[in-house]
Automatic annotation (TrEMBL):
<keyword id="KW-0012">Acyltransferase</keyword>
<dbReference type="InterPro" id="IPR000182">
    <property type="entry name" value="GNAT_dom"/>
</dbReference>
<keyword id="KW-0808">Transferase</keyword>
<dbReference type="Pfam" id="PF00583">
    <property type="entry name" value="Acetyltransf_1"/>
</dbReference>
<feature type="domain" description="N-acetyltransferase">
    <location>
        <begin position="128"/>
        <end position="266"/>
    </location>
</feature>
<dbReference type="InterPro" id="IPR016181">
    <property type="entry name" value="Acyl_CoA_acyltransferase"/>
</dbReference>
<protein>
    <submittedName>
        <fullName>GNAT family N-acetyltransferase</fullName>
        <ecNumber>2.3.-.-</ecNumber>
    </submittedName>
</protein>
<dbReference type="GO" id="GO:0016746">
    <property type="term" value="F:acyltransferase activity"/>
</dbReference>
């Protein structure tokens, strides 16, 4: 029986990006147990569970949840995350995480598209320019753009981006869009050597500049770079706001992902 293409693509994503996850930043490590894969770093890094065994049952799930709470709190981390996908098992894993003290963040949709089917160019509005972020000044512009777009403190991103640009520049593409010299949009692409996937992150535009094609241009710019570097797919965890644009560009929704955060302090 021929496997459904969407199911096959999801299986490939699960295998390459979750079960065989690579560290997403310098200085972090990926650890594997029979039932899950987790990333571990300093408190300033992203820490959490990225994959769970597809045959995970209720008893093993509860044991794994308790073990992760003990593990990360013993390291002194005040927060870590369990990245749950809607196709993960057992089916009530989210509820089990809630009962253990995890709090769900807003869900996002996992979209994937072949790089070859995406536009490699898109026009920006007049007076708007796209710049590659390569130094501390560029990172500051990116942070300002993110805070305008999302209305939240993005300072956590500063050191992560600076470290990656300094120690692993080939794994990150960061861009900022300027209008009359002021940052109005920014985005990143994280490249995963040894896989066919590049991840799109942080694409956000300040409200007065939305609906003018900037988001589409940012995707086209990163798609072109991904193709040049030999990646086959782009992956996005998308909000409801960006999902319609991604569908029009040819992205396919594969699953829903919900970050469950465990915090030792309120």
């Amino acid at each position: 029986m021929t496997q459904d293409p969407t199911a096959a693509l999801l299986a490939l994503f699960d295998d390459e990006m979750r079960r065989h996850a690579r560290p997403d930043a310098p200085g972090v490590r990926v650890e594997r147990t029979p039932d899950l894969v987790r990333q571990v770093g300093t408190p300033d890094d992203w820490n959490g569970v990225v994959w769970t065994a597809p045959d995970l049952d209720a008893e093993r799930a509860d044991a794994a949840i308790a073990a992760q709470v003990d593990y990360y709190t013993a390291l002194g981390h005040e927060e870590f995350e369990w990245k749950l996908y809607s196709h993960d098992r057992p089916a009530d894993l989210g509820e089990r995480l809630r009962r253990a003290g995890f709090e769900p963040e807003p869900p996002e949709t996992l979209f994937v598209a072949p790089v070859t089917g995406l536009p490699a160019a898109a026009e920006l509005p007049a007076g708007v320019d796209l710049h590659t972020v390569s130094d501390a000044a560029g990172v500051e512009l990116m942070i300002r753009a993110h805070e305008q777009a999302f209305g939240t403190d993005s300072s956590w991103l500063r050191q992560r981006t600076l470290t990656r640009l300094a120690e692993a520049p080939d794994t990150l593409v960061a861009v900022v869009v300027l209008a009359d010299g002021e940052p109005v949009s920014a985005a990143r692409m994280e490249l995963c050597p040894g896989t066919g996937f590049a991840g799109l992150w942080g694409g956000g535009t300040a409200a007065p500049w939305r609906g003018r094609g900037i988001y589409r241009a940012l995707i086209a710019h990163r798609a072109r770079i991904a193709a040049e570097r030999g990646y086959r797919y782009l992956q996005v965890d998308a909000t409801d706001q960006s999902a319609p644009i991604l569908r029009r560009l040819g992205f396919t929704a594969l699953s829903t992902t919900t970050p469950y955060a465990y915090r030792t302090t309120p």
